[in-house]
Amino acid sequence: MELLVVIYIVCATILTIYGINCHVMTHLFQRRVAESRKRDAADLEAFYGSQGLTVANSACARLPRVTTQIPIYNEANVIARCIDACAAMEYPAGMHEIQVLDDSTDETRDIVAAKVAEWRAKGVDIVQVHRPDRKGFKAGALRYAQEFCKGDYIAIFDADFVPPKDFLLRSIPYFVDHPEIGFVQGRWDHLNRDESLITQLQAVGIDGHFMIEQSARNYNGLYLNFNGTAGVFSKKAIYDAGNWQDDTLTEDMDLSYRIQLVGYDCRFLIDLAVPAEIPADMAAFKAQQFRWAKGSIQTAIKLMPQVMMHKGSFFKKFQAFMHMSHYGVHPIMLFLAILAMPVMAIGNIGFEGMPFLVFITLLLLSCSGPNRLYMTAQRALGHSFWKTLALIPAMVLFGCGLAVNNTKAVIEAVMGKQSAFVRTPKAGVNGGVKQYKASRSKQHMWELLAGSWCMIGVVCYFADGHYAVGPFLLIYALGFLGVGAMTVGNAFKWLRNK
Questions:
Q1: 427 and which of 62, 432, 434, 477 could share a cystine (Cβ 3.0–4.6 Å)?
Q2: What sections of the protein cross the membrane (predicted)?
């Protein structure tokens, strides 16, 4: 029993470390963001000079040939919008090719074919690429089409993204003047932030990742990951790093780390915003989270030994570990929630054996870390302080409630279980033309069960006089019950609309 208590305390300590690291990332962002933004602006100004950012600028003669790739699988609701946006991007004539990597098996193929024909008639160099099979899923499609693309640099957009017209003009010059750069990453923005509570919460989380974490990593010489879309790669860097590989579900993180391990630099462009559609369906969001969680742990298992052996400071390697393993907090959260009652039954595990002031200090530091990160990101983006503050409690519950979903992903990754790349269904911001649904499972039953178990624990803790622990267990209970209930609600909604 004492061993159980020790394990429980160790797990709580690990969560504290991850929470405090959010303060570290926020600090790293704040100390470098101003000068890094000035550096990015100065680089563009040095390239374009006084003539400004336009294809009429004589400096554009220095721009290399670029291929834009749009990897898709059954995206009938959003692909036309994406193709239109990519075809409308400004770039010197004859220097931009578009490849629609179409693995679709439904009417998406016809939509793409019509759009390709429409834009080819207008003089745009665009092709629809079909593969004999879906081997390797997204990574396989990118690897396949790359062999015959015309560009020396490859921009990548998922089907739900809508790149601005000046995306290439604002990203490619960094490669021209800095050949050591292997990839650049734009910042994700949102087309449907206010569609529902779920989309609002996701927007806050995504903004925190891009505004704070990605900026902090890049601005302070830490490892940066490509986020799968809204960025550009050097084709040479892709080959030098071993090309796209499909042995993880996060081929983007895998390749971007390998590119840096072979000596390339990278650039995160905080002011180059690319809007995209956020999943509005809980099941779709959980499917996306599952893929990211499993893939990042797979990548950590694959690459952390190389990272540890590579040159660089201990801090850089530590942050790489924190980055790739951050979904590992979910099994720990679930473990703490489920074992709360057994640990209480052992007795003498409250605060009696720990100085109360130290406990409260660590607790506040760890719990406030993510919230400070989110609030700082929203403030930097100019969003309402009070509106963001009102969302923070729901963010906390949301994060806890995903622990069951993401724990399954982490366990599968650790056990080496392979699974298919499951795309995130997109409805289109105007309702789309076809209903896609994420795969349904009985996972919500485990979430509701975990929530009920934690709620019983809340009652027991209060009844036993542990008034400081009960509220934290209540957060877990409400999180599990909330995510489980929303999953069931979305399923019924889909059935009604079927």
A1: 432
A2: 6-29, 332-365, 385-405, 446-467, 473-492
